């Protein structure tokens, strides 16, 4: 009975490995005319797409994306947040130093 079980395990292992190996061929199978496209679906064009225009720059804006007074307000808020975080970090660092200095008494 163990021979039968070992054979069954080997067969299932071979099937699994073959399924995984064939799974890597999915892109080439998708290009086949009969298998790759479902009925009624539009086909893909055979010519490759054009390259994106790398050197073409978008036209300049007529007006700023954010008004200058709004930019100043946002900058002020960001600087205040940075200062609050720096002071909080500094306070936490001092608290850790004090706890290390007050550690267990030496000999």
Please render the helix and strand layout as text:
Blueprint: H1 2-23, H2 26-30, H3 68-101
- Could you list the spans in which at least 5 consecutive residues all have pLDDT below 50? none
- Quickly give the structural class: mainly alpha
Task: Count every helix, treating DSSP H or I runs of 4 or more residues as helices.
Answer: 3
Largest sheet: none
- Radius of gyration equals 33 Å
Mean residue pLDDT: 78
Fraction in beta strands? under 5%
Determine the N-to-C terminus distance: 72 Å
Topology, number of strands: 0
Work out the helicity level.
55-70%
**Bulk shape:** flat
What string, H for helix and E for strand, traces the elements in order? HHH
Short description:
The protein is mostly helical and 107 residues long.
Structure commentary:
- The protein is mostly helical and 107 residues long.
- The chain has helices at residues 2-23, 26-30, 68-101.
- It is flat and about 70 Å long.
